[in-house]
Design brief:
Elements: E1 31-35, H1 41-48, E2 54-59, H2 62-75, E3 80-84, H3 91-94, E4 100-106, H4 124-133, E5 134-144, H5 147-158, E6 163-165, H6 183-191, E7 196-202
Parallel strand pairs: 1-2, 1-4, 2-3, 4-5
Antiparallel strand pairs: 5-7, 6-7
């Protein structure tokens, strides 16, 4: 299957997706979410070591969503699914306040040209939406091989009183603390490309409804 590598999230047909669902973990389960999950390699790695958690990938390319869901239905893990939505505008429809234990944002599209910078998803709007959806003590993990993107994310989060940098103020994380890797992370490591990582914890949010 040929899948477009980059999609403009500001296209009119992606700003009004009709069938965006409410994402729920289910009774007795915690919820972890990857934003821009692509093939969901990262979530599949997580799920293989944690059958008790619901893992959901949000992806703007519908063909990839269908492919991930078909693959997981056929061969597992059964606690991974992908959802077609646009995180630039759909976060409020996707998640109840305080319902997510952990968000992952792995290697978002860089959109290098200056005229394309408005398409970048990292910024105060998305971090505010993530803050509302995270439970108290919940985590946001971001990694990218583009320093400018990492700095944009850090700048938005450092001034948000609802987040605290687990590595220290204005400090990047040295290693990926999770037992999972995305396809791009493996590629960067194989090529010796530096990865910039951030881990922030939510403070002052509503309590997590999951045990």
């Amino acid at each position: 299957m040929r899948i477009r590598q980059h999609v403009n999230p500001l296209k009119s047909d992606l700003l009004d997706i009709a069938d965006v669902p409410r994402v729920e973990a289910g009774a007795g389960r915690a919820l972890e979410v990857e934003l821009g999950a692509a093939e969901a390699h990262f979530l599949i790695d997580r799920a293989r070591n944690d059958a008790a958690t619901a893992f959901v990938g949000i992806e703007i390319r519908r063909d990839l969503v269908d492919a991930v869901n078909a693959a997981c239905a056929a061969a597992g893990p059964p606690n991974v699914r992908s959802v077609f939505a646009n995180i630039s505008v759909d976060m409020g429809r996707l998640f109840r306040d305080g319902s997510v234990r952990r968000f992952f944002l792995n290697f978002p599209d860089p959109f290098f040209k200056r005229r394309q910078h408005k398409r970048r998803v990292i910024g105060p709007g998305l971090t505010a939406a993530i803050g509302r959806a995270l439970a108290a003590g919940g985590e946001l993990f971001v990694q990218t091989d583009i320093f400018a993107l990492a700095l944009d994310a850090m700048a938005a989060l450092e001034v948000d009183a609802g987040f605290v940098n687990t590595a220290g103020t204005w400090t990047f994380l040295r290693e990926n603390p999770y037992d999972a890797k995305s396809r791009r992370e493996r590629q960067c490591e194989g090529e010796g490309v530096r990865i910039w990582r951030l881990l922030y914890r939510r403070v002052g949010a509503s309590p997590d409804p999951s045990p």
